[in-house]
């Protein structure tokens, strides 16, 4: 029985896609000497922010509360004690039109005023399946190119693929948010990288 000659290679592929979904962490923080008053004021501010972002085009189903906290505030010095309470209420708003993200943040700032807090944002591709497929295609093509080179060096021809093992795909978003001081904050989508890797064993003939 003739032993089958093989060559084992790794391949990698990477493609870029422009994000089209923005997720923003926004909310309010209110401090007061009385905890009930702080809760009431935070509730009023948060309802105003929610109404503003909904009016700006965000669906209510794309709003989700992500944090609610009540933290005591302490006096410093030789006479420590509670001086008041800070109530923080945060939500995640999913904006499905990138061009609308700036107006959503501007509307939230107008409604929340000095109580508004923005805890960051992330950008993503709503449907990454096409980009991942292209990355896999590129990874396999890279592996085949390597295998064909080794086959030539070995004085053989490349045969069929005998086994394929895929590595875990990865993404690397590059979101950027410019600080805003009046008007709509400009948001640059950048690009999101989708990577794939594969290990292939080819037959040499």
Descriptive notes:
- This protein has about 200 residues and is α+β, with helices and mostly antiparallel strands.
- It has two domains: about 5-20 and about 125-205, 2-Layer Sandwich (Translation Initiation Factor IF3); about 20-125, Protein of unknown function (DUF541), domain 2 (Alpha-Beta Plaits, 2-Layer Sandwich).
- It contains three helices and ten strands.
- It has helices at about 35-55, 100-110, 130-155, and strands at about 5-15, 20-30, 65-75, 80-95, 115-125, 160-165, 170, 175, 185-190, 190-205.
- Strands 1, 6, 7 and 10 form a four-stranded antiparallel β-sheet that branches. Strands 3-4-2-5 form a four-stranded antiparallel β-sheet.
- The longest helix has 25 residues, at about 130-155.
- The two termini are about 15 Å apart.
- The model is unreliable at about 175-180 (pLDDT under 50).
- It comes from Gordonia neofelifaecis NRRL B-59395.
């Amino acid at each position: 029985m003739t032993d089958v000659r093989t060559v084992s290679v790794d391949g990698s592929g990477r493609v870029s896609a422009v994000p089209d979904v923005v997720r923003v962490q926004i909310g309010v923080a209110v401090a007061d000497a009385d905890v009930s008053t702080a809760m009431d004021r935070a509730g009023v501010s948060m309802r105003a922010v929610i109404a503003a972002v909904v009016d700006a085009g965000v669906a209510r189903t794309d709003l989700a509360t992500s944090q609610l906290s009540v933290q005591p505030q302490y006096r410093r010095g030789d006479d420590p004690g509670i001086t008041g309470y800070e109530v923080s209420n945060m939500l995640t708003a999913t904006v499905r039109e990138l061009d609308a993200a700036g107006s959503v943040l501007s509307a939230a700032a107008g409604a929340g005023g000095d109580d508004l807090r923005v805890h960051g944002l992330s950008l993503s591709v709503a449907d990454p399946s096409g980009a991942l497929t292209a990355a896999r295609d590129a990874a396999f093509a890279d592996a085949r190119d390597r295998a064909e080179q080794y086959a030539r060096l070995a004085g053989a021809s490349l045969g069929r693929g005998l086994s394929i093992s895929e590595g875990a795909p990865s993404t690397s978003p590059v979101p950027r948010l410019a600080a805003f001081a009046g008007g709509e904050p400009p948001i640059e989508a950048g690009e999101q990288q989708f990577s794939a890797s594969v290990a292939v064993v080819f037959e040499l003939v």
